[in-house]
Specification:
Layout (H helix, E strand, L loop, with lengths): L5 H4 L6 H9 L5 E2 H11 L8 H13 L3 E8 L7 E7 L1 H17 L1 H7 L8 H7 L2
Antiparallel strand pairs: 1-3, 2-3
Length: 131
């Protein structure tokens, strides 16, 4: 399963924040606060981020075609006003996988630094499955 061309692979290098946004959306659609919660949980609080950094990364991901806005709906669990929800595009999933593979080749210490496991298991399966 390929979402990006081989000649595009060499162009892929994401900031750690952008990669975390893609990982947060690998399992399901989320609103901005849900993305933030996932990043904090997955990195065990080691990645500190404010709303400006988070929403700038989300906007860049949307502008780059890695993430798309999938609608506005209320978060019934929180009882809030409608929130924008985002989802990973096929291109975003492919680029996240390529970047994860690159980090894994850099060594186990780099992998642990950036790629803590997601709730459903090891990240490569999560990224590939389209969960």
């Amino acid at each position: 399963m390929r979402y990006i061309r081989r000649d595009q692979e060499r162009l892929v290098t994401l900031t750690s924040m952008m990669l975390q946004v893609l990982f947060a959306l690998a399992e399901s659609e989320r609103h901005g606060y849900g993305i933030w919660q996932d990043i904090v949980a997955r990195t065990q609080g080691t990645m500190r981020l404010g709303p400006g950094m988070l929403y700038t990364s989300i906007k860049r991901a949307v502008d780059s075609g890695l993430v798309e806005i999938c609608g506005e709906r209320p978060d019934l669990a929180l009882g809030h006003e409608p929130r924008l929800y985002y989802r990973l595009t096929n291109t975003g999933r492919g680029i996240a996988y390529v970047e994860l593979h690159r980090l894994q080749q850099c060594g186990a210490s780099q992998e642990k630094k950036y790629c803590v496991q997601c709730a459903t298991g090891a990240l490569p399966q999560c990224i590939l499955s389209g969960a």
